[in-house]
Write a structure and sequence with these properties.
With 107 residues, the chain is mainly alpha-helical. The protein has 4 helices and no strands.
Length: 107
């Protein structure tokens, strides 16, 4: 497993620990994160262009989460925690995607 892929595992483990006290929130997050991961894997298998397109969708979702967090859209503490978990996951996914689509340096 590459260091970048390992970061996804580390992020998922960290989020799982934080959300572990709220099983309902953890289940919601886990379902969502697995959907995101499936979309990433499918795009990676399809083509670099598909991966870039998927990255745009991840970035859009990330920006929407950032906006919701920054303007404090009415939410409970649990909802806020779930939003923060999703943002952290998307940051890790976007870092991975960026490493996959960046041009390889000539050897």
């Amino acid at each position: 497993m590459s260091p970048t892929h390992q970061r996804l595992v580390e992020t998922l483990n960290r989020i799982s620990v934080v959300l572990g006290a709220t099983p309902e929130q953890h289940a919601i997050f886990e379902t969502w994160a697995l959907q995101q991961l499936k979309a990433l894997v499918n795009a990676e298998k399809e083509s670099r262009q598909a991966l870039q397109w998927q990255a745009l969708q991840f970035r859009q979702e990330y920006l929407e989460l950032q906006q919701a967090l920054s303007i404090g859209i009415a939410s409970t503490g649990r909802t806020e925690l779930l939003r923060l978990a999703r943002r952290e996951w998307l940051e890790a996914v976007l870092e991975l995607v960026d490493s996959l689509v960046e041009p390889r340096a000539a050897a």
